[in-house]
């Protein structure tokens, strides 16, 4: 029998917001320490396992076929930093990477810097945060979290002796070394997990110096070194503005200098390098209403905005997404029509050129580029049909060298699959891109099942990555599509603006338009369509299910942000205050009314929904476990005819299982459920 919360023992929580009475009959599920809450969550897991019991053999078969495609003993491409090259490798049967290095000379022996498998012994979860080596290559500052709640503790390891020093700091989010190897700058979090204090720590010292405290709850602090290693930056950022201070890395007790004070709606990012005039700051800025950013340089001695020199002008149709500064080149990541193009600049003579890519939809990301004085740029390229491939690009010779393509074992043949990029039309006439991959022989008569996903928040483009696990769907005839809806970053800042705050409903209607278009064009049919999303993408799916419950046959919601108003009213929770600039503050009536129109929890109705699989983790610090728990409980009460399964990882955080084998088991479970709903469980 499926679980039912003992409501008779509970008094609903009531609030009055803007004169409206709000009742939350499941607020008691927030009590994480309550044995009753634990029992309820365990009962949900037991019910899910009972329903899925008949699929256990299929789950195991999926797991084994996904595992069989992976080279279990593998290694990343080594990257150079100082006298060493660094890399990570995996071993068969071990859950986590082993971080290593060796001197950059022929025949040099391997040195293991961190074996995450040994560190994880006795723990169900492990996540590595900070990982930064001192300039003399002797000391490693690293942080680990064993809970999934992103509670990272900073340690320092002597890489020559292997000893972990007594230096230890809790709740660290970022760290950077000074040039003399004796000082570590680090940032700590407050009780709401907001990085807000910058400290200076001398190794072995009993007390640390507090250098800066960010008092504005909209802003988060971070500290990092420039690639040139000459500068330490302290950055304060909100979702809509930023502010940088800097310090020569060789002067850890010097004065921190401001680059430009924060201004409303002005975001900027900074790195240190050179141009034709010598040593300069390179700045990506969207001040003055130029939302998609431009690239400028500034003197170290005079960083006033009126003295900036423009290198790349703002363009309405091109988003300047990122930039990497080297001794003789700057590489710009520019997104046009949703796709990244790399532009290489040579500051000495202002010559520039582009790196072109051949596929209709793809993903490009920077790899480790730790050396400043180099003419080679390393990046990772992949698509829905091309496995992740690491390239070195000669910025002077303009040639590409493939260093490694992730092996897909078992005879993977990319010609058996077809990658496309098409467009749907939203109700207001906006074109919404859809990336999709199908078997090359897939019919366009509505007979093909499909998994459609989306995200649409924070200005983040949905990555068009390769997945060897996804082949378990494709080879069973299930096509996979991504709806690049507004709120994401595919169309630059204006695309983001058109799907956040008061414009958030566009995200949901874009997704509906994408699904309707795929059906209308014969890629799939409603009774063969599964939709899915995680985190803010879980909000997307929850809102769409209320808007159009007829849209699909089934849905998967992973760590879904489905209790929007209650969460955004609680300023004690991690992320809430900072995200007023993404969702709005419901204490303002205009934002409250818009949130109320789409909040998945508020809008659950007494009607039948598609079959649902909802996932969460008990130690999630980004979307608290109780949001999906409350959502499922209310859904069960209001729609008893809806088939819903609730799966809780009781020892993980926002990303689910941390071990690579455990993570594959989770994917196998999800795929077994999806394929079962689509009649392809074989």
Strand coverage percent: 35-45%
**What is the approximate shape?**
globular
Number of strands: 39
Overall helicity: 10-25%
CATH topology of the domain at 10-67 and 411-677: Rossmann fold
The CATH class designation of the domain at 10-67 and 411-677 is: Alpha Beta
Widest beta sheet: strand line-up: 32-33-35-34-36-37-38-39
How can the largest sheet be summarized? 8 strands, mixed
| CATH homologous superfamily placement of the domain at 10-67 and 411-677 | Alpha/Beta hydrolase fold, catalytic domain
Oligomer: single chain
Condensed summary:
With 682 residues, the chain is of the alpha+beta class.
Question: What report would you give on this structure?
Answer:
This protein has twelve helices and 39 strands. The chain is an alpha+beta fold and 682 residues long. It has a domain at 10-67 and 411-677: Alpha/Beta hydrolase fold, catalytic domain (Rossmann fold). A hairpin with a 5-residue loop joins strand 10 and strand 11 (164-169). Helix 2 crosses helix 12 (660-677) and helix 6 packs across helix 7. The chain is globular, with a radius of gyration of 25 Å. It starts with 12 loop residues before the first strand and ends in a 5-residue tail after the last helix. The model has no long low-confidence stretch (mean pLDDT 96).
Q: Which helices and strands occur, and which strands form pairs?
A:
Layout: E1 13-17, E2 20-24, H1 35-51, H2 56-68, E3 74-75, E4 79-81, E5 84-90, E6 98-103, E7 111-115, H3 116-119, E8 127-133, E9 139-145, E10 153-158, E11 164-169, E12 172-177, E13 183-189, E14 195-202, E15 209-213, E16 220-225, E17 231-237, E18 242-248, E19 257-260, E20 268-275, E21 278-285, E22 294-299, E23 309-312, E24 318-325, E25 330-336, E26 339-346, E27 351-355, E28 363-366, E29 376-382, E30 389-394, E31 399-405, E32 417-425, E33 431-439, E34 450-454, H4 471-474, E35 479-484, H5 493-497, H6 505-520, E36 529-534, H7 536-547, E37 554-558, H8 564-569, H9 580-583, H10 589-598, E38 611-617, H11 626-638, E39 644-649, H12 660-677
Parallel strand pairs: 34-35, 34-36, 36-37, 37-38, 38-39
Antiparallel strand pairs: 1-2, 3-5, 4-5, 5-6, 6-7, 8-9, 9-10, 10-11, 12-13, 13-14, 14-15, 16-17, 17-18, 18-19, 20-21, 21-22, 22-23, 24-25, 25-26, 26-27, 28-29, 29-30, 30-31, 32-33, 33-35
Helix pairs in contact: 2-12, 6-7
């Amino acid at each position: 029998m499926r679980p039912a919360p003992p409501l008779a023992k509970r008094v609903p929580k009531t609030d009055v917001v803007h004169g409206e009475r709000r009742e939350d009959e499941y607020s008691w599920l927030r009590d994480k320490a309550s044995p009753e809450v634990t029992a309820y969550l365990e009962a949900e897991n037991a019910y899910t396992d009972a329903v899925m019991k008949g699929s256990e053999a299929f789950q195991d078969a999926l797991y084994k076929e996904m595992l069989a495609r992976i080279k279990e003993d593998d290694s990343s491409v080594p990257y150079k930093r100082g006298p060493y090259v660094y890399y990570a490798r995996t071993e068969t049967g071990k859950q986590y990477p082993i971080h290593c290095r060796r001197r950059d000379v022929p025949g040099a022996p391997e040195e293991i810097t961190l074996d995450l498998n040994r560190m994880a012994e006795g723990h169900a979860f492990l996540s590595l945060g900070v990982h930064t080596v001192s300039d003399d290559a002797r000391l490693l500052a690293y942080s680990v979290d064993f809970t999934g709640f992103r509670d990272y503790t900073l340690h320092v390891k002597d890489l020559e002796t292997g000893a972990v020093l007594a230096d230890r700091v809790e709740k660290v989010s970022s760290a950077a070394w000074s040039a003399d190897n004796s000082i570590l700058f680090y940032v700590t979090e407050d009780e709401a997990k907001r990085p807000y204090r910058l400290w200076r720590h001398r190794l072995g010292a009993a007390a640390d110096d507090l250098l800066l405290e960010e008092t504005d709850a909209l802003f988060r602090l971070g500290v990092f070194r420039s690639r040139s290693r000459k500068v330490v930056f302290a950055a304060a950022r909100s979702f809509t503005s930023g502010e940088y201070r800097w310090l020569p890395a060789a002067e850890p007790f010097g004065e921190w200098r401001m680059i430009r004070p924060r201004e409303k709606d002005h975001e900027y990012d900074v790195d240190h390098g050179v141009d034709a005039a010598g040593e300069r700051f390179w700045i990506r800025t969207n001040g003055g209403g130029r939302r998609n950013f431009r690239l400028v340089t500034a003197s170290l001695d005079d960083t006033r905005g009126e003295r900036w020199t423009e290198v790349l002008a703002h363009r309405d149709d091109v988003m300047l997404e990122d930039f990497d500064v080297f001794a003789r080149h700057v590489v710009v990541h520019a997104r046009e029509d949703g796709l990244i193009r790399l532009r290489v600049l040579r500051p000495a003579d202002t010559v520039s050129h582009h790196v072109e890519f051949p596929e209709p939809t793809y993903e490009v990301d920077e790899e480790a580029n730790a050396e400043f004085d180099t003419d080679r740029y390393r990046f990772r390229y992949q698509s829905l049909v091309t496995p992740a491939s690491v390239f070195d690009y000669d910025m002077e010779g303009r040639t590409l060298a493939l260093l490694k393509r992730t092996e897909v074992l078992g005879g993977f043949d990319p010609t058996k699959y077809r990658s496309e990029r098409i467009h749907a039309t939203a109700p207001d006439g906006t074109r919404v891109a859809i990336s999709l991959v199908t078997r090359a022989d897939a019919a366009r008569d509505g007979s093909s099942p499909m998994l459609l996903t989306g995200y649409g928040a924070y200005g983040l483009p949905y990555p068009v990555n390769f997945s060897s696990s996804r082949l378990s769907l494709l080879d069973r005839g299930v096509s996979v599509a991504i709806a690049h809806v507004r709120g994401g970053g595919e169309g630059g800042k204006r695309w983001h603006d058109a799907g956040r705050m008061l414009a958030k409903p566009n995200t949901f209607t874009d997704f509906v338009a994408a699904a309707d278009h795929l059906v209308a064009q014969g890629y799939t049919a409603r009774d063969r369509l599964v939709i899915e999303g995680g985190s803010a993408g879980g909000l997307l799916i929850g809102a769409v299910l209320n808007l159009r419950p007829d849209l699909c046959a089934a849905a998967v919601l992973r760590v879904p942000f489905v209790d929007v108003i209650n969460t955004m009213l609680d300023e004690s929770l991690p992320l809430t205050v900072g995200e007023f600039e993404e969702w709005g503050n419901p204490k303002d009536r205009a934002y409250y009314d818009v949130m109320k129109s789409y909040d998945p929890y508020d809008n659950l109705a007494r009607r039948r929904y598609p079959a649902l699989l909802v996932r969460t983790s008990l130690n999630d610090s980004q979307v608290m476990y109780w949001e999906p728990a409350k959502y499922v409980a209310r859904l069960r009460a209001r729609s008893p005819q809806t088939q819903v399964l609730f799966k809780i990882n009781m020892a993980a955080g926002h990303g689910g299982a941390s071990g690579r084998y455990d993570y594959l088991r989770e994917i196998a479970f999800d795929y077994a459920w999806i394929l079962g709903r689509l009649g392809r469980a074989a």
